[in-house]
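Hey L., structure's done. Input below.
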Amino acid sequence: MRLLLSLLLFLSLLVPSMPALAAEQQVWIQRIGGEESGEVLGSVMARDTSDGLVISPSISGLAAGAYGFHLHENGSCDSGLKDGVQVAGLAAGGHWDPDNTGSHQGPFGVGHRGDLSRLVIDADGTSTTPVVAPRLSVDDLKGRAFIVHAGGDTYSDEPPLGGGGARIACGVAGE
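Output:
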């Protein structure tokens, strides 16, 4: 046994070490709210890089345009009651803000870390353009939800939450 362990140790010194693979995670995105709730729209692949988290969407089925896109604090796409009205995706909570900034400044600002670049749906109804979240890593996604909001995002607090509209799609990152 000792000879075998010595041989394995010797061989491990001869073999060049492999570079660590970048962490990545695929998150499936589904429509929430309305009659088509649950319809899978595609996925996003999140991968750690030296520039931060690169999020590569592969989404189809939304109208062309810009959508608010955020990482929310809870890993749930369930609806919830707000002022007596059912709100799609409300269980996802607010934008992930671990630093308690209370500020909506976009992915390159110092506000919510859950602020992501707009998700742009092309004229053909697809989105495949990657975005960078420089202050995030794959580890930050665990137990959180990606939310797609109707309407764009101004990356400011006025109008509230950057003008993003209803929560229309959601995906929960795994543990």
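The chain has one domain: 22-172. Residues 22-172 form a domain with the Immunoglobulin-like fold (CATH 2.60.40.200).

-- N.
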